[in-house]
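wait is this the right file?? whatever heres the structure
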């Protein structure tokens, strides 16, 4: 089967019997080209299924009007909502986004960044993978002279813009709530301490226990990958303890779902025997039984602010970034899984 050649601006020019320069100017809405010609060029381009070469355009103009977005996973409502709102904000200003996911892999994240830089994106908005410790690949973005915006998971050492919620205070809000429900032995299934947001949640958890004069038992603090399967496994470890917890604060809703399933399978009453709080306010938290108390991370606002933050750098000849944090207050959505009173 013969390979179909890609339509070029020369093909459009031949149909209209005008120069390729005129076609190029018309496609870029140049004021020197008449509206009649622009309309004709756009119509022929559509008929021939013309697709602009963003890479070539970027090399010529220095701007691709493309923004790279890197997320750990796209099947999370939080990340998909952030992406939606980033795209909505940037589309209004003529930008398109390229979405990549790291699948929590450092190696994949490095490859994503290399691919986006090769594509000549005008900026990158990213949330880091769980495996990421070395930041050299992010330094590449800064060295390329384009804005780097981080959200949810970012590191202060990068000295760039960051948007997220107050993870430390979120843990205080959760522990305060559980104490109000009469819980005295509160476990925390957290993320890995090496990731800043999970370290902040762990610090908030331990400090909140001290505030309420509750004992800090290392057996009740467990690091995990926060998958649904991991939630089940870590909850089973907690149930195997001689002195079980009476509440579990889980740093991610998918792991919290695994906890919920395991407790129900073992006929453990939620919240009377063990209260449960998740994190992220995924849509399923309001559908399962009992409904899961969770933290709303304000994905709409984070996406909107990330887009706006990038646009603030638009037109700057030299990008000079410093650590600027936009921290949103977390909101605890109290549901049946933790409400005893």
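ok assuming it is, sequence goes like this
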């Amino acid at each position: 089967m013969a390979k179909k050649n890609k339509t070029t601006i020369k093909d459009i020019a031949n149909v209209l019997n005008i120069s390729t320069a005129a076609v190029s100017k018309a496609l870029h809405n140049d004021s020197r080209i008449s509206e009649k010609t622009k309309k004709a060029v756009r119509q022929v381009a559509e008929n021939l299924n013309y697709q602009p070469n963003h890479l070539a355009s970027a090399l010529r103009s220095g701007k691709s009007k493309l923004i790279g977005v890197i997320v750990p996973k796209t099947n999370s409502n939080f990340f998909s909502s952030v992406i939606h709102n980033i795209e909505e904000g940037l589309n209004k200003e003529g930008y398109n986004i390229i979405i990549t996911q790291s699948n929590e892999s450092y190696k994949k994240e490095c490859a994503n960044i290399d691919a986006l830089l090769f594509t000549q994106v005008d900026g990158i908005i990213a949330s880091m993978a769980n495996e990421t410790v070395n930041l050299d690949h992010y330094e590449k973005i800064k060295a390329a002279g384009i804005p780097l915006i981080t959200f949810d998971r970012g590191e202060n050492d990068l000295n760039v813009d960051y948007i997220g919620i107050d993870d430390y205070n979120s843990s205080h809000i959760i522990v305060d709530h559980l104490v109000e429900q009469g819980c005295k032995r509160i476990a925390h299934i957290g993320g890995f301490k090496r990731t800043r947001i999970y370290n902040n949640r762990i610090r908030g958890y331990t400090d909140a226990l001290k505030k309420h004069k509750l004992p800090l038992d290392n057996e009740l603090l467990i690091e995990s990958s926060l998958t649904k399967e991991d939630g089940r496994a870590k909850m089973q470890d907690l149930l195997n303890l001689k002195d079980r917890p009476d509440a579990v604060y889980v740093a991610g809703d998918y792991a919290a779902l695994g906890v919920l399933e395991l407790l129900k399978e073992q006929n453990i009453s939620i919240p009377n025997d063990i209260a449960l709080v998740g994190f992220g306010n995924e849509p399923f938290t309001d559908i399962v039984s009992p409904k899961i108390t969770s933290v709303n991370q304000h994905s709409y606002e984070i996406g909107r602010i990330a887009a706006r933050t990038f646009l603030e750098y638009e037109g700057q000849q030299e990008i000079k970034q410093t650590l600027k944090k936009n921290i949103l207050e977390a909101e605890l959505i109290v549901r049946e899984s933790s409400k005893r009173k």
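The CA atoms of residues 63 and 315 lie 10 Å apart. so i think its the right one actually
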